[in-house]
TrEMBL record:
Pfam families the UniProt entry points to: TPR_10 (PF13374), TPR_12 (PF13424)
Name of the protein described by the UniProt record: Tetratricopeptide repeat protein
Region (Disordered), start-end ranges: 20-47
Organism encoding this protein: Streptomyces synnematoformans
Gene3D superfamilies (alphabetical): P-loop containing nucleotide triphosphate hydrolases (3.40.50.300), Tetratricopeptide repeat domain (1.25.40.10)
Domain of life assignment: Bacteria
């Protein structure tokens, strides 16, 4: 006997004494055995009220459905929630309404839905019951039958294969083909070209800022101002699904309507993804694709099913960082092994790229970038027991990306790229010990920024790190105080002397009380404070603080430590020239040789000592010696740091002085003119260093003398 059941039919088999066995066959619920209820209407959760932006891609798609044109396949790819289905829906309405095409819509999210939907397409195009029965029963190739009737269609058509996030399903039986009678549009998260040979790929990303704000205004026009809508749109990363849910939430409040201002405040209070998803229609069946908190879980589940748990682990690790571009070099480190094998990181990253969960960006440094709402969703859904190792690994990766002892050097773009990720880590981490490790790494990142001349970023990083660290560790914690001290050092370099003096003085006082006067952190604040006091003209106070710092560093670190030698080199610049000769039994004048012996001739501290020694020679009237040493230092600075670094410009300013002092006034003016122009460009026209350079240039051009200060 060879009985078969169709739809809700039953098969009864009897043998012997007529014992009957009844077999119940149940579908998976995604599409009934008889096919979808309709392929002529798009199966979308919430059609867009107005499709914002997308004009360029719609123009290209619209041209493909004009007249009798056919034979094309378009693949709309992008991350979940970016509006691929909305674009396809809009094209569907245009094709059927304005261009008279037959519109056919099939869910390609799984095998049963695809098969049932495509057989329903064949029925729509004229396939008979017998042919369909044979195809359902496996007696004839189902895909061949469907495309046979699509090719014979008397009317041109548009076929949309929606949510084709498993392209291998389309490959089974060659469900995706071309036909001269119509155009095929596929929506998918899978971006790899290998899945779509011969198709035209079109990326669908987030909306432009103005259009994103308009989506909120379309859905909730009376909830707030255009400026408030703009801020919320940015907060939601301009992701269409998030904007639609937010607008739906604002528009459906009845008893106590929310304003956009209230919504923005609640988002900032860390309600985040849970609040966004409250905008879903409460009366509709929950669909993960229509909720930002669940839509990406579909892909994570697929990773697990395919034996790619490393992709999930990598995405959870990325969710500890920011949505800004993340240098790929950060991930290519042995420290990642605590979360996923380093050898599997490449495959995991490719899987994320293929699923549009991240993208590669080139901004002078190769980076990966993921959407903020995606990262927030993944972070919120990460199991609690997985969070500590993820946080620890993220901190170790950051720590390894920052030099253990940052040195002066040219501008390094990777440091600034790390800043948002370092601060995001501090915001996410709850464990105090891990927070402390993160704060130490972020403070060292601020030092690295400072020493490459990026003072604005150094200040912002240290200030934010101090604020975030204080919430976890308290205001008097060693690491919090160190971050505050670095902020003060950066303020000095930014020319904000009064603020720097106030901050460094306060922090040094607290450090003396909490850590002790000879603690290395206290001494570091003292070194920074004397620089500020000296530039404020309070030389006696500056000398007193500097002498205390030198003595403390000698006791704690030893006479040959680079920081001890650095502070002694500052004495060369700060003390009156006559006092330097007698200082430390005359040993201060031989400091460059001592630094060369201990640290080497090219060490930053050695170069600084030689620079300050040349300044001393100039003040002592030894102009030939000063010029020779200054030229050597300037050449070294140019090689190491480039022409615009603050120390290079300081050395060239001293070189211009020596030129004028030796009677080469035109050469000195030429050098100083360039120095002033470069300072205006890098530091700003109002920076004290720039103003001092302009005054000195004025003195040279007027012939009034050599000026004061290096």
């Amino acid at each position: 006997m060879d009985g078969r059941a169709e739809d809700r039919g039953r098969v009864f088999q009897a043998s012997g004494d007529q014992h009957i066995t009844e077999h119940h066959h149940h579908g998976d619920g995604s599409a009934g055995p008889g096919g979808p209820d309709s392929v002529r209407r798009p199966a979308v959760g919430r059609p867009p009220a107005v499709l914002r932006d997308r004009a360029e891609v719609l123009a290209r798609l619209r041209a493909s459905v004009a007249g009798e044109r056919g034979g094309e396949v378009f693949v709309l790819y992008g991350m979940g929630g970016c509006g691929k289905t909305a674009v396809a829906y809009t094209l569907f309405q245009l094709a059927t309404g304005e261009h008279g095409r037959v519109g056919l819509w099939v869910s390609a999210s799984d095998r049963s839905s695809l098969r049932a939907g495509m057989l329903a397409v064949a029925a729509d195009r004229g396939a008979g019951d017998g042919e369909l029965l044979a195809a359902r029963g496996g007696l004839r190739p189902a895909a061949d039958l469907v495309w046979q009737y699509l090719d014979r269609s008397a009317e041109p058509w548009l076929l949309v294969l929606d949510n084709a996030d498993e392209p291998e399903i389309l490959g089974d039986g060659s469900w995706l083909r071309t036909s001269p009678r119509g155009t095929v549009v596929v929506t998918t998260r899978r971006s790899a070209a290998r899945w779509w040979p011969g198709a035209e790929l079109q990326h669908i990303g987030v909306l432009p800022r103005a259009d994103a704000a308009r989506v909120l205004r379309d859905l909730a026009p009376d909830s707030g101002t255009a400026q408030e809508a703009d801020r919320i749109a940015e907060r939601l990363g301009r992701l269409p699904l998030a904007l639609t849910l937010a607008g739906g939430f604002l528009s459906q409040q009845v008893l106590d309507p929310w304003t956009m201002e209230t919504y923005e405040r609640r988002l900032d209070e860390r309600e985040g993804v849970a609040l966004i998803d409250q905008g879903a229609d409460p009366l509709s069946q929950e669909d993960p694709r229509n909720l930002v908190g669940l839509t990406w879980q579909l892909t994570l589940d697929a990773f697990e099913a395919r034996g790619l748990p490393e992709a999930t682990a990598l995405l959870r690790l990325l969710a500890r960082f920011s949505s800004e571009p993340l240098p790929l070099s950060l991930l290519d480190r042995a420290e990642i092994g605590a979360v996923l094998p380093r050898s599997r990181c490449e495959a995991a990253l490719r899987a994320l790229l293929d699923q549009s969960l991240t993208e590669l960006v080139e901004i002078g440094v190769r980076c990966t970038q993921s959407h903020g709402v995606l990262l927030d969703s993944v972070a919120a859904a990460t199991p609690a027991d997985r969070v500590p190792p993820l946080d620890t690994t993220a901190v170790r990766l950051l720590d390894a990306a920052v030099p253990a002892v940052p040195d002066s050097g040219p501008y390094e773009p990777r440091y600034r790229l790390l800043v948002p990720h370092a601060l995001a880590l501090l915001r996410r981490i709850g464990d105090p010990r891990t927070s402390g490790d993160a704060l130490a790494a972020v403070t060292r990142l601020s030092v690295a920024l400072h020493r490459t001349g990026d003072y604005q970023a150094a200040w912002e990083t240290a200030r934010s790190a101090g604020d975030l660290g204080e919430r976890r560790l308290g205001p008097d914690h060693r690491l919090v105080l160190a971050a505050r001290s670095r902020a003060g050092r950066a303020l000095f370099r930014l020319g904000r002397y009064a603020e720097a003096e106030q901050l460094l003085g306060r922090i040094r006082t607290v450090q003396e009380a909490v850590l002790g006067a000879d603690d290395p952190d206290t001494l570091d604040s003292g070194h920074g404070l004397q620089l500020v006091l000296g530039n404020l003209g309070r030389h006696d106070e500056a000398v007193s603080v500097l002498r205390s710092t030198v003595a403390g560093r000698r006791r704690v670190l030893g006479p040959d430590h680079p920081l001890t030698l650095r502070s002694r080199a500052s004495l060369l610049a700060l003390l009156p020239a006559a006092d330097i000769v007698a200082e430390d039994d005359g040993a201060l004048l031989s400091l460059p040789e001592e630094c060369t012996r201990v640290l080497g001739p090219d060490h930053t501290v050695t170069l600084g000592a030689r620079h300050n020694h040349a300044w001393t020679s100039y003040r002592l009237g030894r102009f030939d010696a000063a010029e020779q040493e200054t030229r050597q230092v300037t050449d070294a600075y140019l090689r190491r740091f480039g022409p615009d670094h603050v120390v290079t410009l300081s050395a060239r300013q001293l070189l211009s002085r020596t030129q004028v002092a030796r009677g080469h006034v035109a050469a000195g003016i030429e050098i100083m003119t360039d120095v002033v122009a470069r300072r205006e460009h890098s530091l700003g026209a109002d920076h004290p260093f720039t103003a001092a350079g302009r005054r000195l240039l004025g003195e040279f051009t007027s012939g009034r003398g050599r000026g004061d200060g290096a």
